């Protein structure tokens, strides 16, 4: 590719598309749920006005991509990639990744893996990002398990937070092993 990420990503049975205003109530409801909120760096409840301001802020950020996750045409979660430098995301040395899932009828055990694979494929294959970082609470065992399955390595442990990093080579090796779950998708 020419270094420009597609606005919509599809693969592994999921669709990641840019967020639109109609997504905001669902994203806010899921983000405010205890399951998601208590796993975040910022654990306060998000008001509708705060959600709108967030959307207005992220809408024009060249160093960020924010997607609504869909499965079979149904909103199912959220994913993002955010660069560390205020410049286009393409080619950045480091970017932060994040995702969360909503409680929906299309949620299943492999959904987080599918979303992460789609997101990380874009990061490494389309955007040429060198290293992906993420922060996970040390007691968030499901997120730690997911990230380790994807090839992430622990770098630092400060207070209750672990910083994990991922580069292309371990990611592609991990993806190769995970593909058995997605052969028919």
From TrEMBL:
Residues 15-152 form the N-acetyltransferase domain. GO terms for molecular function: acyltransferase activity. It comes from the Bacteria. Pfam families: Acetyltransf_3. Keywords: Acyltransferase, Transferase. InterPro entries: Acyl_CoA_acyltransferase, GNAT_dom. SUPFAM superfamilies: Acyl-CoA N-acyltransferases (Nat) (SSF55729). Its EC number is 2.3.1.-. This is GNAT family N-acetyltransferase.
